[in-house]
Amino acid sequence: MSLTKEEVEHIALLARLNLSEEEKERYRGQLSSILEHVAQLQELDTANVKPMSSVLAEALALRADIPGESLTQEKLTANAPDAADNQFKVPPVLDNEG
Amino acid sequence: MADLTELTLLQAAQGLRSKDFSSREITQAYLERIERLDGKVKAYLTVTAELALSQAKAADDRLAKGGTDLPPLLGVPLAVKDVLAVDGVRTTCGSKILENFVPPYTGTAVQRLLDAGMVVLGKTNTDEFAMGSSTENSAYFTTANPWDLSRVPGGSSGGSAASVAGRLAPAALGTDTGGSVRQPAAFCGVTGLKPTYGRVSRYGLIAYGSSLDSVGVLGRSAADAAALYTIMAGVDPLDSTSMDIPVPEIKFTGEDEIKGLKVGVPAEYFIEGIQPAVEEKVRAAIAQFEELGAEIIEVSLPHTKYALPVYYLIAPAEASANLARFDGVRYGLRVESEDMIDMFMETRGAGFGEEVKRRIMLGTYALSAGYYDAYYGQAQKVRTLIQQDFLKVFEQVDVIAAPVAPTTAFKPGEHRDDPLAMYLEDVFTLPANLAGVPGLAFPTGFDGDGLPVGMQLMGKHFGEETLLKAVHVYQQATEWGKDLPEV
Question: Which chain B residue has its CA at the smallest distance from A20's CA?
Answer without folding.
Answer: B349
